[in-house]
Amino acid sequence: MMKLTYSHLKVVVYVVFIAIILSLPLFLDEFWLNRTAKYLIYGMLGVAISLSWGYAGILNLGQGLFFGAGAYMLGMSLKLASPTSLEQGGQTPIPDFMMWNAEPNAVVDLCCINHVSFLWMPFQSQSFGIFMAIALPVLIAWLIGTIIFRKGIAGVFISIITLAMVLLARLLVVDAQSFTGGFNGLTDLAWFKINGYEFDPYTVSTYYLVAISLVIVLLITRVLINSRAGLILQAIRDDQNRAKYLGFDAASYQTFFFCVSAAISGFAGMLYVITAEFASPTFMDLSFSIAIVIWAAVGGRASILGACIGAISISMLGASVSENELFVESWQAILGLFFVLVVLYMPKGLAGIAHGICRKLTVNRGEG
Amino acid sequence: MKAKNRDLYIDGLGVNFSGFQAVNNFSMVVKHGEMRVLLGANGAGKTTLMDMICGKTQSTAGRIFLGDKEITNKPPHLIARMGIGRKFQIPSVFKELSVLQNLSVAAMQESTVLANLGSMKRRVDHERMKEVMSMTNLENKAHELAENLSHGETPWLELAMLIIRKPQVILLDEPTAGMTADETLKTSRIMNNLKGQHTIIAVEHDMAFVREIADKITVMHQGEFLAEGHISDIENNQAVKDAYLGSGGIH
Ligand SMILES: Nc1ncnc2c1ncn2[C@@H]1O[C@H](COP(=O)(O)OP(=O)(O)OP(=O)(O)O)[C@@H](O)[C@H]1O
Ligand SMILES: [Mg+2]
């Protein structure tokens, strides 16, 4: 019989996880598939946080910024494609909130209904919306990264800066009402379309769009952290100076992986808009960004799959629990308490415990 | 001296920390394959000198050459790539990685992110790893996490990480600090093994150890060059004796 090694077991765990999420449509109805798709999207955020926090040592307290940016970028395209926007009677589609806020004699055209509306024009193409949903988060991450990491700023300062950024972004989005829809966000959106095929959020196809995306993100991330660059990244996390004096430009590694993490989050935001049919400034609430960190901490930040499963299961638990009168108010507190306990007693999260068990079960120690 | 034969050439180097002259007009030439020891009382500027060579501290005067390439005030990772390896006074290794992984990182040929997106396999020279691990007494620790190494093994791992890169010049800041007598002895064996293959500059306080390894000694005093020569010359040098009087002499 072949010996079961640690790395075999790891592959088995991945295969089981992927098999489960791909087979769920056999057991769930459309309503539940739609809900589960949202949890899987949160799982993708868990992957993003694990990559930046667990592997790069960058605790991003503003992950919601990238998620929100991705959501709004595609949201803008879907808003313009909605029947309401198309039927405002202008040359171009116009979002309803722009009509409500327009001057009485304004020209009914995206170019000039207000002085920033022209920025919406390229979003008439859905492909542009998709492109920007990835490009904008990456650009923001690159700017933050280049400034912060070049200066050698580390540790808690990165958390404070990212936290400040997400709060600032939320403020701007709520404030720029005639450009962003303000507090209400973007609602009444069209369905996502590929080659004429429409993704109704309450169908198996939308579920698979999300599930397969998650599988791809998981696999790409695994390949990245198993690469030479991934190992160097972990070395930089452990001792930035040692890495520098071995000849690695630490800042460029941190910036690169911070951008990858942002791209994943933006992608997740984009899928969320497709599934939930709205984009909202609440994506940039502090509590949401903190929740992502807690999911990953409980699941295990040092494990991509651990953080992913942590995010999926805790958000699922949170959603069902807050439907119960008793927990509506207290869920946040329970989650917070849970977080403190995890940090104190199992710093590697549930995945850490699972790793320990796997090591005992297997005969020889793999590299993983 | 011919440029061909010298690995490190320091010319009139100085640094001023907002008014405090930590190193002043310091010059030194280190030949290829030499084992040079830097001596000096606490605060003499030995660490600061190494910091300037490896790019950690920006000098305010003078120039540094590696072979015939100038490296003065270049970014640390570039200086490292050009062929200078530095071991710090406080040992630093990648704690959450295994010994093998620490060495793999050190041995990477490429330095940029994009060049390193490929897989680990194939690129690792297992023979060389084994050789370096046995040279530094770590042959049985390949899969141990660096954080679980003993007090004496941690600096060996750091040393191994430098050796595996085959840098032209290795800078060692107090390689035996905090070691037991036995570990110090083993370290001097490692150093003598390296002799001739690498150009090494070491700061060291333990005179027994210095006698064991040094080819030539350079003495610093209050940031300045004081004396240079073989160990017997230095021990009998009047200026050195005077400088050390306050701190009880060299032991
Ligand atoms: N960044 C800095 N700013 C100001 N002063 C500094 C700085 N770095 C070093 N110094 C000062 O420069 C002097 C030389 O310090 P250095 O650490 O180089 O001495 P050293 O010879 O390595 O001593 P030791 O044997 O104790 O390690 C000391 O007086 C120190 O306080
Ligand atoms: Mg020193």
UniProtKB/TrEMBL annotation, chain A:
Keyword Membrane annotated: yes
Annotated GO MF terms: branched-chain amino acid transmembrane transporter activity
InterPro entries from the UniProt entry: ABC_transp_permease, ABC_transptr_urea_perm_UrtC, LivM-like
One Pfam family, short name: BPD_transp_2
Keyword annotations: Cell membrane, Membrane, Transmembrane, Transmembrane helix
Matches recorded under CDD domains: TM_PBP1_LivM_like
Spans traversing the lipid bilayer: 12-33, 39-58, 128-149, 156-173, 206-225, 246-274, 286-314, 326-346
Topology of the protein relative to the lipid bilayer: Multi-pass membrane protein
GO cellular component: plasma membrane
Subcellular location as annotated: Cell inner membrane
Record's keyword annotation contains S-adenosyl-L-methionine: no
NCBIfam families reported for this sequence: urea_trans_UrtC
Protein name (Swiss-Prot/TrEMBL): Amino acid/amide ABC transporter membrane protein 2, HAAT family
UniProtKB/TrEMBL annotation, chain B:
Cited CDD domains: ABC_Mj1267_LivG_branched
InterPro entries on file: AAA+_ATPase, ABC_AA/LPS_Transport, ABC_transporter-like_ATP-bd, ABC_transptr_urea_ATP-bd_UrtD, P-loop_NTPase
SMART domains: AAA
SUPFAM superfamilies: P-loop containing nucleoside triphosphate hydrolases (SSF52540)
MF term (GO), any: ATP hydrolysis activity
Pfam families found in the cross-reference section: ABC_tran (PF00005)
Keywords, ordered alphabetically: ATP-binding, Nucleotide-binding, Transport
GO CC terms of this entry: plasma membrane
Span of domain ABC transporter: 3-247
Domain of life: Bacteria
Protein name: Urea transport system ATP-binding protein
